[in-house]
Amino acid sequence: MLRLSCWAIKAPQIVLHSIPRRSISLHQTLRMRLVQFQHLCTRKIGLELEAGGNVVDLNAFDSSLPCGMKEFLEAGETALQKAKRALDSGQHILNRSQITLLAPVTNPEKIICVGMNYVDHCLEQNVPVPKEPIIFSKFTSSIVGPSDAIILPKESKEEDGMAYVAGFTVAHDVSARDWQMKKNGKQWLLGKTFDTFCPIGPALVTKDSISDPHCLGIRCRVNGDLVQDSNTNQMVFKTEALVAWVSKFVTLKPGDLFLTGTPPGVGVFRKPPVFLKAGDVVDCEIDELGVISNPVL
């Protein structure tokens, strides 16, 4: 379960952006895979030509574009239109081997995670489906890239809607189950937010590029073994409901992330329980979004 002491895939992940209300219909025509990457020791923004393929260097095409995803999203429709022009130009294409892919967003103000948001996950725990979203958080220091290592903590045992949604990505909600279930008054926060405990990627896939975010296959493998296999149609609260609900309590900003729940198969609920250990490799995959693969150190 993608929760450090276990695995628990979280998806699809929602990334917010800033758009004027009158420009929504224009934005809906933009289909792209936005990435953050490093090239020659410099962080940049790019577009994947295809999943796992070469990347268009947006900053090389237009130096006025921000080099960070959060700032790019804050620029709203203007930045997205420049990105489309860069894609259409066919210029400034970097071979995948020339770059290092970073997390799509590295500095969100909030990482908002939703617990028990898959019907089949509630069933595996023998608990009732919640009547309201169960919200927890992660700190930005927990974010690492789609291929970066998940580092085990020394102190822990081995565990409105859619209009404002920019796109979706894959996330691995790593958890230290001893801290989550037995320490800190059984509050979830500390067990969820150790450094590196939130790999995300490989790309921010714009919502217009996805057939239906609420009908996507979602899988997790540990060392090649399939441990979670479900579909986002099992989510209790859909994307629109989650954005509206959370907006009652906090102000959402461009680049903010929602981790929308985990399907069944997490290690802590297996008999016997199974926890991640150094040397393991965890692959998290969502149809149309891609795969992230992270070693455990």
TrEMBL record:
<dbReference type="Pfam" id="PF01557">
    <property type="entry name" value="FAA_hydrolase"/>
</dbReference>
<dbReference type="GO" id="GO:0003824">
    <property type="term" value="F:catalytic activity"/>
</dbReference>
<dbReference type="GO" id="GO:0046872">
    <property type="term" value="F:metal ion binding"/>
</dbReference>
<dbReference type="GO" id="GO:0044281">
    <property type="term" value="P:small molecule metabolic process"/>
</dbReference>
<comment type="similarity">
    <text>Belongs to the FAH family.</text>
</comment>
<keyword id="KW-0479">Metal-binding</keyword>
<protein>
    <submittedName>
        <fullName>Fumarylacetoacetate hydrolase domain containing 2A</fullName>
    </submittedName>
</protein>
<dbReference type="InterPro" id="IPR051121">
    <property type="entry name" value="FAH"/>
</dbReference>
<feature type="domain" description="Fumarylacetoacetase-like C-terminal">
    <location>
        <begin position="157"/>
        <end position="296"/>
    </location>
</feature>
<dbReference type="InterPro" id="IPR036663">
    <property type="entry name" value="Fumarylacetoacetase_C_sf"/>
</dbReference>
<dbReference type="InterPro" id="IPR011234">
    <property type="entry name" value="Fumarylacetoacetase-like_C"/>
</dbReference>
